[in-house]
Amino acid sequence: MKRIALTGLALAAISAAGVGGYWAGVRGLPAPGLRELFDAAGIPAVAEPTGTGTVIYYQDPDGKPAYSATPRQTEDGRAFRAVRAGEDVSFEDKPPVMAEVASPRRVLYYRNPMGLPDTSPVPKKDSMGMDYIPVHEGEDDDGTVVKVSLGKLQRTGVRSELVGRRVVGRLVRVPGMVQLDERRVSVVATRSDAFINEVADVTTGDRVTKGQMLLRIYAPDIATAGAQLLTDLNSGGRDSALGGARQRLENLGLPPEAIADIERTRKVPLSMIWRAPSDGIVLERNVVDGMKAAPGDVLFRLADISTIWVLADVPEFDLGAVRLGAPVTIGVRSLPGRSLSGRVSLIYPQVGEATRATKVRIEIANPDGALLPNMYAEVEIGTGAAAPVVAVPDDAVIDTGTRQVVILDRGEGRFEPRAVKIGLRGEGFTEIRDGLAEGDRVVVAANFLIDAESNLKAALRGLTPAKAQP
């Protein structure tokens, strides 16, 4: 009945004024027909509300989630509706006017279109003439969820990714110094007074092999003990006596092969040969021909450099990421383009007061002797656990210094800030130890805009007076 009444009133108005009477008086304008005055259903056409400002995008005329940056038409030839700046001022979706009437959800209240802490129980306009936005039942959350219109999502470039599990690691690049393996350093010394008869042609820096002659000495105590051993042997002494004489020679540092020569030849040599105890390089030579050496004097200092140490200085803030057995790559300036591999064998149990760094020891095989003591080394230590962990791209984490937040994508333009606890960072990813699970979807682009909107929303809700809150 209402439709018939409206149609009748419209026909009566047209009959009274004459369909062409008014328009005929307007120069150059044709008279409108009934199709322009009535829609297909017979209801008078209502002028579509227009916004203010420049056109920012075009939307499907039926309000469907279809948008275009340039003018466009639907499949049936209807033009997309131009959306101006004044019509798109909030992150919230703005349902069509007719859809609001047909919506089964109840309108709880109306909020300020500019996000101000102002609500109204009935429709109203703000000081600029903009309509208050209705908040339906189910949309009044606790202030943590932000709803973003689809058009806003397209313009701001919001992008999200699924949370997965991966191995997170990074390289800790620190300086280091090549050092001798303390277990491979040896000295050549006598345990009694000795006279140096001859020194081999060996100087500091030379390489020697195990068993190579270093010097020839005469030691009275060794000669006396050797003579006693021969006396016991020649007289057919008891085993205990022979054992005692042999033990005295061993206590004086005479090598086992020299003792065997005395027993075989039944002669005590006037001088004894002192040989290198191991392979290595000569670090010190403190002996010359004819000198007298006291017990314990260091005649030679040798070092085996087939295996060598690299001591790296790891800053205190990186120390937690370094673990025993971690892979290490080492480069030295004297070997450009060549890298050596090793593993962390020891983390020293103290932090330097001045440097706030801890020394980390890496053992490196050095068969060709290319690494020399006190060389500078550039050390790269691999960090991270061997097992995959929950991780997100670095861009997904908003780090304020006091808290770490990610934006959880809940679908349909709804986003929720989520506080998380982070772990290791490396290779573009951050470990999440608490706050997310595998399969969640997080925002990785333009997330700071959503976080800013969420913080503003929470702040405005906190400033809203009690009487103004619905």
UniProtKB/TrEMBL annotation:
<dbReference type="InterPro" id="IPR058792">
    <property type="entry name" value="Beta-barrel_RND_2"/>
</dbReference>
<dbReference type="InterPro" id="IPR058790">
    <property type="entry name" value="BSH_CusB"/>
</dbReference>
<dbReference type="Pfam" id="PF25869">
    <property type="entry name" value="3HB_CusB"/>
</dbReference>
<dbReference type="GO" id="GO:0016020">
    <property type="term" value="C:membrane"/>
</dbReference>
<dbReference type="Pfam" id="PF25954">
    <property type="entry name" value="Beta-barrel_RND_2"/>
</dbReference>
<dbReference type="GO" id="GO:0030288">
    <property type="term" value="C:outer membrane-bounded periplasmic space"/>
</dbReference>
<dbReference type="Pfam" id="PF25919">
    <property type="entry name" value="BSH_CusB"/>
</dbReference>
<keyword id="KW-0813">Transport</keyword>
<comment type="similarity">
    <text>Belongs to the membrane fusion protein (MFP) (TC 8.A.1) family.</text>
</comment>
<dbReference type="GO" id="GO:0022857">
    <property type="term" value="F:transmembrane transporter activity"/>
</dbReference>
<dbReference type="InterPro" id="IPR006143">
    <property type="entry name" value="RND_pump_MFP"/>
</dbReference>
<feature type="domain" description="CzcB-like C-terminal circularly permuted SH3-like">
    <location>
        <begin position="390"/>
        <end position="450"/>
    </location>
</feature>
<protein>
    <submittedName>
        <fullName>Cu(I)/Ag(I) efflux system membrane fusion protein</fullName>
    </submittedName>
</protein>
<dbReference type="InterPro" id="IPR051909">
    <property type="entry name" value="MFP_Cation_Efflux"/>
</dbReference>
<dbReference type="GO" id="GO:0060003">
    <property type="term" value="P:copper ion export"/>
</dbReference>
<keyword id="KW-0732">Signal</keyword>
<dbReference type="InterPro" id="IPR058791">
    <property type="entry name" value="3HB_CusB"/>
</dbReference>
<feature type="domain" description="CusB-like beta-barrel">
    <location>
        <begin position="307"/>
        <end position="383"/>
    </location>
</feature>
<feature type="domain" description="CusB-like three alpha-helical bundle">
    <location>
        <begin position="233"/>
        <end position="268"/>
    </location>
</feature>
<dbReference type="Pfam" id="PF25975">
    <property type="entry name" value="CzcB_C"/>
</dbReference>
<keyword id="KW-0406">Ion transport</keyword>
<feature type="domain" description="CusB-like barrel-sandwich hybrid">
    <location>
        <begin position="185"/>
        <end position="303"/>
    </location>
</feature>
<dbReference type="GO" id="GO:0015679">
    <property type="term" value="P:plasma membrane copper ion transport"/>
</dbReference>
<dbReference type="InterPro" id="IPR058649">
    <property type="entry name" value="CzcB_C"/>
</dbReference>
<dbReference type="GO" id="GO:0046914">
    <property type="term" value="F:transition metal ion binding"/>
</dbReference>
